[in-house]
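So, can you check what follows?
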Amino acid sequence: MIIYPAIDLYDGKAVRLIRGDYEQMTVYSDSPVSTALDFAKAGAVSLHVVDLNGARDGVPVNFDLIKRIAAVSGLSIQVGGGIRTEEDIKNYLDAGIDRVILGTAAVATPGFLLAMVSTYTEAIAVSVDIKDGYVAIKGWTEVSNLDAFGFCRTVEAIGVRTLICTDISKDGLLSGTNIELYRTLREELDIKIIASGGVTSLDEIKTLSGLGMDGVILGKVLYTGNLDLTEVINIC
């Protein structure tokens, strides 16, 4: 199972939100590049990056910063937030990003998702952000009428290889993740699944690995020092 330390970018800074609420934001670093280098020194080989400005506004905002993180850190990076066009995808891939994550665009324009998966195959992932059983979009500021599990099955049928699933109700609270959600997803789907949201303990990480998760994203739990990244990576 791959460990993905997370960097959420807002106005060029590394921040964390609580339950996706932009009004509940904590700034952890004014230098996201340094944060990425610290993760690399701790043993990380992969990184999860979200452009929060882009997710909310619908266009990549922190592109230049993300490009620099990719160039300096040497990490395998997956990026989401505000990616709505093929040009956005090409720009990120050309900048050295390994995987581009579609969220709102996957929900709003399934034909676009199908075309991008057909063209870029494993370089495209879909983020399914769940709130009260439904898929949230636009940086979690809106909730669609799509049933989360039904949407996951549709995404798999389209040919998406990797699914990043977040229970918004758990995100940023350090109160534990939704193990049963990931258990059900693993039972119903055959694609790669990366768990995200509220992961707090080594026991949870071991459980997620045992369930067959392909990756887990760690955010606030690393910034607060509740978990040591090197220890987590060594265990996994």
Observations:
- Residues 63-73 form the longest helix (11 residues).
- The domain at 2-235 is CATH 3.20.20.70 (TIM Barrel).
